[in-house]
Amino acid sequence: VATQVSARIIGQNLLSAEVAGTPASEILPDSETLHLLDPLSAEWYALAGRLEYQAGDPVRAVERFRTANIKRPFNRIILQSLGELLISQGRIESGLLLARAGAEQERMFPDGWRWYVTLLSQANPEESLPVFKRVIKLEPLKTRDYLTMMVLRGFTNDQIERALPDESIPWVSYGDYHRELGDEEAAEACYRTATLHALSSSAPSAVVFRKYAAFLVSRQRMAEAVDLLEQGCALLPNDPGLLLLYARYSEVVGLVRQAHDGYQRVLMIRPGHVEARRRLTQLEKEWTTL
Predict the structure, then answer these.
(1) How far apart are CA 214 and CA 157, in angstroms?
(2) Residues 258, 239, 186, CA angle at the centre, nearest 5°?
(3) What is the Cα–Cα distance from 258 to 246, expressed in whole angstroms?
(4) Integer Cα distance of 232 and 214 in angstroms
């Protein structure tokens, strides 16, 4: 408890000092004080290492982190903090080895791999590609963040494509990126790849079909959009949003029977769906009139 309280107080003092313009070295406890507070705490030495580094003493910072690592040799944050510090001193290879070792301690969680790939992509973009693929697979909804990182690092389109896993959501994100740049051809290639992955997936996402269909409609290719959504509805027969989109587009291109069936399927899943009920009633009224 004493260690946690002391660490928090020193951290707050450091932030206050930075705001006030006071050198961090003026508020750092010396080695003996740290030792007396808790000689067994790896966390305390790791905190001390961070404070020493911010105070402009990287040599002492490394020694603090080494002590922390000896006390707790398999802690991801300690390993990666030391690795990052070594890299900042130009000891790239040793730093990356430690950063990788830290990520391996929690290999099924993204945090360590995210930290590692951030460091590795600066030092060696080509070697970072399989690591990007791994971490994007762990958190596909953050693909856009990783795409931004790769673009800022100067990765080529070929490198980015090799960094994406064989899953639909990352490729949709890459398609969205190309579309924002105005590269419609590249965007469609990505959406098409995403669709192929979705069609072979055991857990397909409706987002893929919605995004690609919207793209096709924007290109005045409504019939293709209907065909695509029909494939999506076959994979996801209980997705009311996808069924509704399929019914709407079918109605636009004159496929009244398909639209009617689509609205009916929506109502089977969501009996109170207002638009599906209204459109179904309208279609049936038109049939009666004819």
Answers:
(1) 24
(2) 85
(3) 8
(4) 13
Predicted confidence (pLDDT) per residue in 107-145, tens digit:
899 999 999 999 999 999 999 999 999 999 999 999 999
Cα separation values, 279 from 189, 219, 230, 250, 275, Å: 34, 25, 19, 12, 6
User: Residue 58 — very low, low, confident or very high, per pLDDT cuts 50/70/90?
Assistant: confident
**Does residue 281 come out as left (phi exceeding 0), alpha (psi in the -120 to 50 range) or beta?**
alpha
Q: What would the pLDDT profile of 180-209 be if each residue is shown by its tens digit?
A: 999 999 999 999 999 999 999 999 999 999
With tokens 């290639």, the residue in question is 189
Cβ neighbour number for residue 51 with a 10 Å cutoff: 24
237-276: string of b/e by CB count within 10 Å (b at 16+)? eebbebbbbbbbbbbeeebeebbbbbbebbbeeeeebeeb
pTM, to two decimals: 0.80
Amino acid 289 reads T
Token pair for 28: 């750092």
- pLDDT at position 281, please? 92
Mean pLDDT, residues 278-289 taken together:
84
Tell me how crowded residue 174 is: count the other CB atoms within 10 A of its CB: 25
Residues 44 and 38: beta-carbon distance below 8 Å: yes
Q: Taking the CB of residue 173, how many other CB atoms lie within 10 A of it?
A: 23
